[in-house]
Write a structure and sequence with these properties.
By secondary structure, the chain is an alpha+beta fold.
């Protein structure tokens, strides 16, 4: 794998990140209005909220992937847990170990912070993601339900 660093998002990353985010959303049936994208970026830059973003950057410090995650309390442990919300690797960089490196970095952060675990979801038919994720965790027998309590914003 080519040299890659994982770091916090910074303002100069926004244009690259927005291109990656738009690609990430392609083909997804869940809407994502522009206001949500803007809020996500603003939250990623803030130091005081639970939402975090890590940028995977290449040798020239250009973004080539990202991880979005949030930590929260857990009813079954005094330790916090981490929900990995999104993981994206630039299509031209896939298959080179970048996803694994990103998960390893998140695991390192979690160990240092004392999290109990990291959990995530993926599409049932995203077999490439399954191959990666099967190396890091065990598949949960739980089934996700979504209860819509408000409509999505027009966007």
């Amino acid at each position: 794998m080519a040299r890659m660093t994982m770091r916090a998002a910074k303002p100069a990353d926004e244009a690259h990140w927005r291109v990656m985010w738009a690609d990430f959303l392609t083909g997804d049936d869940e809407p994502c209005p522009a206001e949500a994208t803007t809020r996500l970026w603003q939250d990623a830059l803030a130091d005081d909220g639970p939402l975090r973003m890590l940028i995977a950057a290449d040798e020239s410090d250009a973004p080539i992937g990202f991880v979005v995650y949030v930590t929260h309390g857990y009813a079954r442990s005094p330790r916090s847990v981490c929900y990995l919300i999104e993981l994206y690797v630039d299509p031209s960089r896939r298959g080179a170990g970048l996803g694994s490196a990103m998960l390893e970095k998140l695991r390192e952060i979690g160990r240092d912070a004392g999290w109990l675990k990291i959990y995530w979801m993926t599409q049932a038919d995203n077999f490439a993601a399954h191959r990666l994720y099967d190396k890091f965790g065990r598949r949960s027998p739980l089934v996700r339900y979504d209860m819509q309590v408000n409509e999505y914003e027009a966007g």
